Amino acid sequence: QVQLVESGGDSVQAGGTLRLSCVASGRTYGRACMAWFRQAPGKERERVAIIENEGATDYNDAVKGRFTISRDIAKNTLYLQMRSLEPEDTAMYYCAARFDVTGGCSTHHLWYPYYGQGTQVTVSS
């Protein structure tokens, strides 16, 4: 079993910054795909960013140039550095993971079997 615990969500003004963290524990071995997804009220869950085991990253066009995903393998921790936040970034942010991966990482949220409980990000104008 795998546990993911997010932290770092907060309420900020537009233009502000936040850093989200996600600590993974349990059976976290093998090649991994880790990702951040977000879901706003009344909207579908959407990918924010993905990081592959070897470090390659993928971003939603809406956050490119503003958000950075990174991973500290030794600490089993995933990060999302968010800058120039906009009201449209307001959502519940979820850490997602899949371990023992043999191919590439999917951008679809249903491909990831493990999710954290979520951390709320609210950006006011």
Give helix and strand order, one letter per element, not per position: EEEEEEEEEEE
Radius of gyration: 14 Å
Measured by DSSP, the beta-strand proportion falls in over 45%
Main pleated sheet: 7 strands, mixed
Query: How many distinct beta strands?
Result: 11
Structure class:
mainly beta
Helicity range:
under 10%
Mean pLDDT: 96
Basic shape: globular
- Enumerate how many helices there are, as a single number: 0
Q: Runs with pLDDT <50, length 5+?
A: none
User: Ends: how far apart?
Assistant: 40 Å
Description:
This protein is mostly beta strands and 125 residues long. It is built from no helices and eleven strands. The strands form two sheets. Strands 2, 4, 5, 6, 9, 10 and 11 form a seven-stranded mixed β-sheet that branches. A four-stranded antiparallel β-sheet has the order 1-3-8-7, with no helix packed on it.
Strand-helix topology:
Elements lengths: L1 E6 L3 E3 L4 E9 L5 E8 L6 E6 L5 E3 L7 E6 L4 E6 L8 E9 L14 E2 L3 E6 L1
Parallel strand pairs: 2-11
Antiparallel strand pairs: 1-3, 3-8, 4-5, 4-9, 5-6, 7-8, 9-10, 9-11
What would a concise description of this structure say?
It is built from no helices and eleven strands. With about 120 residues, the chain is mainly beta.
Characteristics of this structure?
11 strands; single chain; globular; 4-stranded antiparallel sheet; 7-stranded mixed sheet; 125 residues; mainly beta
